[in-house]
Specification:
InterPro entries: Aldolase_TIM (IPR013785), Radical_SAM_PqqE_MftC-like (IPR050377), rSAM (IPR007197), rSAM_sf (IPR058240). Keywords: Iron, Iron-sulfur, Metal-binding, S-adenosyl-L-methionine. It holds the Pfam family Radical_SAM. It contains 12 helices and 14 strands. The chain is of the alpha/beta class and 384 residues long. It has a single domain, classed as TIM Barrel (Alpha-Beta Barrel), CATH 3.20.20.70. It has a 10-stranded mixed sheet with strand order 10-9-6-5-4-3-2-11-12-13. The longest helix has 15 residues.
Length: 384
């Protein structure tokens, strides 16, 4: 395929004006001026010298003991060695990586070298995001407030009893009061965005009877998010251990929708509501199996996942030997990426669940077939 010309445009949300809602338009983000040329390279079958975005799991250690944790199979298998993760941060800072998301696996802020990692990546011009349980925000407050583009805290509750039921601490005391205080403090000082994440969860007895749920706390959690100064409240649906959506009774969906309707009245220029693609699938009663008609994931050429146990094609395949690209413990990241087979996962066979990047893959596939110029929009969010 011939190279598709790019036409700059003044349209599109610049970084200073983009709302939190823009962050969920993953397919739309590939048209940004600093992203589109790399996307076209991948669409044309080429390889990038480095991925644009990296999900980085510094550690597999977590201080909570959530029964529904989808990462339970990869927890407590160590961390990236302190010297190696600092060296890795230096490698990434010197590369063409545009953004790094500190995530897990475990709780990223528990790695003892995390402050140095943040400092190094930030100094290298890399944009940073963080997904955290919020228990140790206070230990890293200055850096998180000054150097992070966004921080998303997984809370999944509005009150301490419900929080303790679904996000119990490994210690004897509830983590909920500390998490709330940490978020309020960060909200007052932050430069980037702060998000309150709510994963809908239910438990059923052997006879199918509902025994526990956080569905009734959606409105109260969203209200708490706004009152503490969060920029957005995000709703997500629980997945099974293989990442498939779990469809719910219509009465339970209606319970959420009624609360969501009331939350919509709270939206303004400084507070947004976000709904994940998996919740939309559940809300619509979609088949948990999402068919794919492409044999290789184009997004795997644009972003990757680094963990203490290896580098994987994406977070969905974290811990899956078939999705393993290599191990940064015994090689530089540049060398690993150069030799990585990012097409080792066949989405038709290996990704039958609802994938958040599926629309992006479809969009890139369409780009590969176009001959007319593609219009680029100003940069607003590198976290594609």
């Amino acid at each position: 395929m011939s190279v598709i010309p790019i036409t700059p445009a003044s349209a599109g949300p610049p970084a200073s004006q983009a709302s939190a809602a823009d962050t969920l338009d993953l397919a739309g983000k590939i048209y940004q001026e600093s992203v589109l040329p790399h996307v076209l390279t991948v669409a044309d079958g080429g390889r990038l010298p480095a991925p644009l975005v990296i999900d980085l799991d510094p550690t597999t250690v977590c201080d909570l003991a959530c029964p529904e944790c989808i990462s339970s199979n990869v927890l407590h298998h160590g961390q990236i060695a302190r010297d190696r993760i600092v060296e890795l941060a230096e490698e990434l800072a010197a590369s063409q990586v545009q953004a790094v998301i500190l995530i897990g696996g475990g709780e990223p802020l528990l790695h003892r070298s995390i402050d140095t990692v943040i400092d190094t990546l930030h100094a290298g011009g890399i944009r940073l995001g963080l997904v955290t349980n919020g228990t140790t925000i206070d230990r890293h407050l200055d850096r998180l407030a000054e150097k992070l583009s966004w921080v998303r805290v997984s809370v999944d509750a509005a009150t301490e009893p419900v929080y303790d039921a679904f996000r119990p601490s490994r210690g004897k005391d509830s983590a909920f009061p500390g998490v709330m205080e940490n978020m309020q403090t960060l909200a007052r000082r932050k430069r980037g965005r702060l998000g309150y994440s709510f994963l809908l969860m239910q438990r059923f007895g052997a006879d199918g009877t509902l025994t526990d749920s956080n569905y009734h706390e959606v409105y109260a959690a969203g209200l708490r998010a706004k009152e503490m100064g969060c920029d957005y409240f995000e709703l997500k649906a629980m997945l099974d251990m293989d990442h498939f959506t779990v469809n719910q009774q219509q009465s339970h969906i209606d319970q959420v929708l009624e609360q969501w309707g009331r939350l919509e009245e709270l939206q303004d220029e400084s507070f947004h509501l976000l709904r994940s693609s998996n919740w939309e699938a559940v809300r619509q009663g979609s088949d948990p199996h999402q068919p794919k008609d492409y044999s290789a994931c184009a997004v795997a050429g644009l972003r990757t996942t680094i963990t203490p146990t290896g580098v994987y094609v994406c977070p969905y395949h974290r811990g899956n030997p078939h999705g393993l690209l290599g191990d940064i413990r015994d090689t530089s990241f540049a060398e690993l990426w150069k030799n990585a087979d990012t097409a080792r996962i066949d989405p038709r066979r290996d990704c039958r669940f609802h994938c958040a990047r599926h629309p992006t893959n479809v969009e890139i596939g369409a780009l590969a077939k176009r001959s007319e110029p593609v219009t680029a929009v100003p940069d607003y969010d590198p976290f594609i």
